[in-house]
Amino acid sequence: MTAERYAKLSAPFRSRPWAVKGLRSANRALTLLCYICYPALLLWLLAYMDARLWGAVLVPAGSFVLVSLFRSKVNRPRPYEAMDIQPLIIKNTKGNSFPSRHVFSVFVIAMTWGWICPPVGAALMVVGVLVALIRVIGGVHYPSDVLAGAIIGILAGLILYL
Length: 162
What we know:
By secondary structure, the protein is an all-alpha fold. The chain has seven helices and no strands. It has helices at residues 3-14, 17-47, 53-74, 79-82, 101-116, 118-137, 143-161. Helix 2 (17-47) runs antiparallel to helix 6.
């Protein structure tokens, strides 16, 4: 992505302050939704003493640690650092752009829910796509960051099914 492409992508939002506010609110709300859904699933599995609890804890947690370590080694600059753009989503983080941990988290949570309750998992996959789009339009990730996060989240989740 170039600064010119980002300018075109974000222009419809920049010209409408309410759209920027909506993008930021959607980013927060969708992220919060996923981070509420995951502990809710774990509590449900615990309450019913479901043996799948261990997989639902260990696979997402272990893959999260691995993604975080990989990300810190790669330490890719974020678009607003590399292209000198003004992102729509305010973030002061330097580096650690690849892969997107937000998108990874949504997809691994979606896969975990899909293992237990496929309709909820499918709905969370849609949320994952929206989060990925928001993070790119918001200027905090490149398309390759969110694509990699989604793929890794899906692959990590597939471990649950094996």
